[in-house]
Queue: 2 jobs
Job 1
Amino acid sequence: MLATAVIMFREVLEAALIIAIVLGASRGIAGRGKWIAAGVGLGLLGASIVAILANAASSEFSGYGQAILNAVILLGAVAMLTWHNVWMSAHGRQLSAEVKAVGLDVRSGQRPLAALLLITLVAVMREGSEAVLFFWAIATSGEQSLNMVIGGLGGVVGGMLVGLLLYIGLLRIPVRHFFSVTSWLILFLASGLAAQAAGFLNQVGLLPDLGNGVWNTSAILSQNSLAGQLLHILVGYIARPSGIEIVFYTGTFLTILILMRIFGNLQGRRINAGGNPA
Amino acid sequence: MLDRIFFACFAAGIFFISVSAFAADPLMLSIRGSRFEPELLAVPAGVKLKLVIRNPGNLPVEFESTDLSREVIVRGQGETEIYIGPLDPGNYRFFNDFNRDMQGTIVAKPASNKEN
C-alpha cells in the first residue's frame, strides 16, 4: 500500500508542480481558473487514451511511439511556456500594477489563456498516462488491489498537496517581485522539459547523444532522491546529462531569455509599477 | 579507441552521428517475477546498441535509468526496444519506476577486452 502511494506520488508530482507554477504565473489573469481546470480535465482524458494505447496488444505503440509522443508533448509544453513568458514580459508590469491596485481578476487585453490550458493539458497527460496505466494494472490485479488503490489515491492526494504548498509559497512573494520570480521559474522549467524531450528522441535513435554522461554529480545529489527529483522537475536537474540534453537545455534557456528581452524586459518589474498608473 | 574519437568530435563541437559502429545483435533484458534478468548486463563501450526489454508478466514495467536518461513503459506480456550508447566505460544503473526494488546495472567495458 505504501509502495503504491509512493509510486503514484512521484507520478503526480511533476504535473502538480507545473500546475502550481502556471497558476502562480497567471495570477491576475481573468478566467484562468476555468481554462486551467479544463486543461486538467482534457489532460486526464488524454492520459487515459494514451494508457489504453500503451496497453493495447499492437506493438505500434511500443518504445518508438511512446518516445515520440513524449517528446512531442514535452516540446509542446516548452512552446506554450515560451509563449506565456514572452507575453508576461510584455504585459507583466501592467498586470502586476493592476494586481496590486485591485486584487485579482483584472482584464488585460489579449491573454495567453489557450497557453495556460495547453500547458496544463500536456503536464497532466504526460505523467498522467503513466499513473493511469499503473493504477489500472494494480486495480485489476486482484487480491491486494483494494489496499493498493487506497494507497495510490493517497499518493495522488500527497502529490497535489505538494503542488498546493508550492502555490501558497509563491503567493507569499511580494507582488513587486512576483512575476519576475514566476518568469524565472518557467524559464528553468521549460529548459528542463526541452532536455527531457531530447532524451526521448535520443532513446529511439533520432538524435545523437553527443557524449553520454558529460559530467556526473550523482554522488553529490542523486537524481533518484526526493530533492534530486524535485530539482529535476523544477529546474531540469540531470545528474549525468548527455551532450544533447545540455544543448537542448541551454538552447531553450537562451532562446526564451532573448525573446523575453525583445518583447519586454525581465527587470521591468523591479521598477515600482505604482509610478506608472496609465 | 572509438569512444576517444567520438569524444574528440564532441569536443570539437562537430555534429556527429555514430552510425558506423552498430552492434548487430540486440541486447536482451527480461523481467522474471520481480527481478530483471540479467541484473548485470555487460555491454561493449563506444558502440550504439539496441536493447530489447521483454516483460512476460501481467503488470506493466517502467524501465528507467537516470544514468542513461532512459524511460520507457513495457506493458504486461509485451516487449519494447530502445537504443543506448555509445557509452563510456562504466556502470549505469537502471530500475523499474513502478517498483524501485527492481534494479540492475549495465556495465560498459572497453571493446578490446569484452569477454564476459
Job 2
Amino acid sequence: MTIFSKLKVAAIAAGLGLAVALPAAHADEQYFPLQSYRVGPYAAGGTGFFGGFIDYLNLINTRDGGVNGVKLTWSEGETQYEVERGVEVYERLKNNPGVAAWNPLSVGIAYAMIDRITKDKVPLITINHGRTDSTDGRVFPYVFPLLLNPYSETSGIVNYIASKEGGLDNLKGKKIVVLYHGSPYGKETIPIYELLAKKYGFELQQIEVPHPGNEQQAQWLTIRRAKPDYVVLRGWGVMNPVALKSAAKVGFPVDHIVGNVWSNSEEDAIPAGEAAKGYTAITTQASGAEYPVVKEIIKTLYDNGKGNLENKSRIGSVYHNLGIVNGILNVEAIRIAQEKFGKRTLTGDEVRWGFEHLQLDPARVEALGAKGLFHSINVTWDNHEGNGYVTFQQWDGKKWNVVSDWIAPDWALLRPIIEKSAEAYAAEKGIKLRTSEQAEAATN
Amino acid sequence: MTAIVSDFSTSHRIPGWLPPVLLLGLAYLVIPFIGTSYLFEAILLPFLALSLAGVGLNILTGYAGQVSLGSAAFLAVGAFAAYNFNLRVEGLPLIGSIILAGLAAAAIGIVFGLPSLRLKGFYLAVSTLAAQFFVQWALTKFSWFSNDSASGVIDAPALSIAGITFNGAVGRYLFSLTVVTLLTFLAYRLVSSQSGRNFIAVRDNETAARIIGVPVLKTKILAFAISSFIIGVAGVLWAFAYLRTVEPAGFNLDRSFQILFIIIIGGLASIRGAFFGAALLVILPLALSRLGSFLLGNVFNSGVLDMSQRIVLGALIILFLILEPDGLVSLWDRIRKRSAAVFGRM
C-alpha cells in the first residue's frame, strides 16, 4: 500500500512538475500546438487531417529548411474530439514560445477557445467548418473559418442540386431532407437551409442523428415516408457510412444523396461498400496523389520513412489532402507576415495579420504545387473565409472522381446574414467593431 | 454496498476542524498567488466542479443508498437553467440564477426520483438512466434552451457578483472554491443531522427504518432533491467557471459514470471521499498523459499513448479497488492512524 501511494504521489508530482516546466525558447522557430484526435469515433478524420498537416510542415522543414529559415515545430495533445480535453490541451500547450495558430478541427473545441485565443491574440483556424459568423473579421479578429464556412457550403450544395435540376427556378416544389449530425457542427446550418428553402421555394425537412450516429434506422424510415428528391448528408465520422448503408436498406437511391464537406472522404465511402457507389459529395480540395506537392511529400518524407500516416494507402485521401491544404494556408500566412514584419519568429498577432493578407491566386497555388488540389483563397481583414471555391466528386466504388467545375457559392447572398449574426454577437458581448486601421496594426 | 460513516475523531491530537481550515487557508491564501493558469484552468476548476457533483451524488448514493446514473443530466439541467434564468430574467443577480438553477435541478431530480419509491438497486439505476437520456434529448431537441443559437452551443455569461467580476482564471477559481466550500459545509451539516441519519437508516434497512418511524418516502425524495440541487450547482460551475461554453453533448453518460466512479473510488458515504475521488480522476489521467508524452512522445504518436494510458488507468483503478474497496478515504484514515500510532510511540 505504501509503495502504491508513493507511486501515486510521484506520478502526480511528475505531472504537476511538467505543467510548469516549459521547453526553453529557441530563436527562429514557429510553433504549432496541435489538438489532434487519433482515437475515438472521429479518428479517421483526425489522423488524416493532422497527418497531412504535419506532413506539409515537415516538408517545409526538410525541403526548404523552414519558412525563410524559420523552422516549424509542433507537438500534439490528444482530444478525442472532446471539449474538456481540447481545453486542457490548449492550457497545456499555449505557453510554448512562438505559437503561430491553433487548428483544433472541432467546432465544439473552437467555440470554447474563442474567448481565450482572442485574449491571447493568437489566430484560431477552423478550415471548412467553424462558427459561420466568425467570417466577419470586424467582430472576430482572431478566428478564421478558412476556405469554406458552413453557410457557403450550404449555398454550394443547393446550387449544385439546382444545376442537376436545370436551374434554381426548378427547385420550386422539390423536397430536400437534410440529415445532420447531432453536434454543434451539425446544427450550424439549420437556419441557412431554412432561409434558402424559403427563397427558392423547395420543401425542407431537417432530421437529426444523435452523436456518434451508428444507428439510423428510424431516421431513414422517416425519410422513406417523406419521399424527398434529395437527401443532404451533413455527417461526420461513423455516421456517414451508416447513413449510406441505411439508405440502401430502405431503397433510397444513392445518387440522390449529396454529402457535405465532412461526409466526403474515403473513410466515409469505403466502409459502406456497394451502397456508396454513385454517392456525390462537395469538397474544397480534390483527392488523389497526382498533385506536385503531394508527390514531393511522398518523395521527401514517405520514401524516407518520415511520413506521418501509418497507412500509406491513405496518402492523397480527402482528409490527408485537406491537412496538406491546411498546411499550405498556415505556412503561406506566416510567409506573408514575415515579408512585413521580418524573417523571424512572429507573434500570434503578426500571424493574424498574415492570415488577413492570405491571398493566393490560381497562379500562386500552381507555384506551390497545388494546382487542381484547391482553387484559390482571398482572405481580407473583414472576410476571414476568403471565398474558397467548391467542386463535387462522385464515388465510383474505388475512388472519388471530380464531376463538376470549381463552383462559387453565393457570397453576396450570405454576407448580410453573416454580418447581422456577427453584429448581434458583438452587441451581446459588448465588442466594438474593428476597423481596417486597427486590423493593419499588429502587436509584437 | 459497503459504506463507512466518516469518522472525524480518529486522531485525538488534532481537532477535527483543523485540517479543513488549513486546507481552505492554503486554497484561498496561497494557491491563487503561486498557481499557473494551467493549474487553474485544467486541474482545479474541473476538480472543484466534479468534487461538488460527487458530494451531491454521495448524499443520494452513499448516504441514502439510491443508485443514480443520471448525474450528468442534473449537471446539464443546472447549467442550462442558470443560462436561461440569467438571459431571460432582467436584473436577476448571478447568485439568484445559480440558486434557481439548483432548484430547477432539484425539481427534475424529484420527478426522476419518484420511481425510487417502488424500485431498488439495479432497477432504480436503470430508471435514472431515463433522466440521463431524456434531459439530453430535450436540451438538444428544443433549441429554446440554447436561445436558438445556430450550433446549440451557448456562451456562458461573465461571472459577476455585486459588481465584482470574476473573469480571470484565478477569479473563477475563487468563485468556484467559495461555492464549493459553502455547499460542502451545508452537506456536512446535513449528513450529521437527523435527516442525514434518516438517509443512512433508509439505506441500511428500509423496513427497519419504517418501523422505527423514519418517513421513508419523504426521506428518499429529500435525498433526490438535495442531491440534484448540489449537482445542478456543480453544473453551473462546470459550464460558467470551467468551460465557459455549454453543449448538451458534454453531459453524456460518460460524465454520469465519471461522477459515480468518483464517489466509489473516493469512498461512499463520505464528504471527503468526493474530493479524493475527483482529485484522482482529474489528476491521474492528466499526469499519465503528460508523463507518457514526456517520456515516449517521440516514439509513439498521441493516439497510441492515449490508448495505453487508458489501459494503465483502468488497471490502476482495478488494483486500487482490490486493495482498498472502501475507497481513498479509508486509505487516508489508515495512514493517519498509523502515523499517529508511530508518533505516539516516540
